[in-house]
Amino acid sequence: MRHIGGMAALKVALLGASRPSVAALAAALEEALKSSNRQAQVVRAAGAQRLPADLDSASLVLLAGLEFPADAADAAAEQSIRAALAQSGLGYQVLYGSPAERLTRALQAVEGLLPPSEPTFSARQGAARPASAASGSVSQRPWVWMCDKCSDPQCEHRLLTALLAGRTCPPPA
Known about the structure:
Elements (H helix, E strand, L loop, with lengths): L1 E3 L2 E10 L2 H17 L3 E8 L13 E5 L7 H17 L4 E3 L3 H13 L19 H5 L17 H13 L8
Parallel strand pairs: 2-3, 2-4, 4-5
Antiparallel strand pairs: 1-2
């Protein structure tokens, strides 16, 4: 992440096979970032067979997943994008859902880049939030990576115990 004038400047790369959905999502994301006083650049690459040359300088890489049913040309283009991303070794997140859900997920991904001291998008009045979080049907706590030792039985036991302790309903009989 680059810093300009003391504020973090984000560079978000938005890729996808479908030009209209990538363009609409990019415009909505740019507007949301601008309205939250974030210095950000959203770079779009829709339907491209090659990745942008400066993709490795992006703070975040997002891929707008195809909606089903997808035509064969879009499916081939998305596979090409995914293969290029895998070959480059760049991490990316895939966004699915309605346009509002995609925007919410993109903002959540950007929020994950913010230092803990900065206000987040969901903390602001009127910020887009997932329907399930707004209705209270899921825990309000964000998911936290517990450890990278998934084969450690003691670690798995602690993780499972913590998950079971956090249940709000009794297990099925």
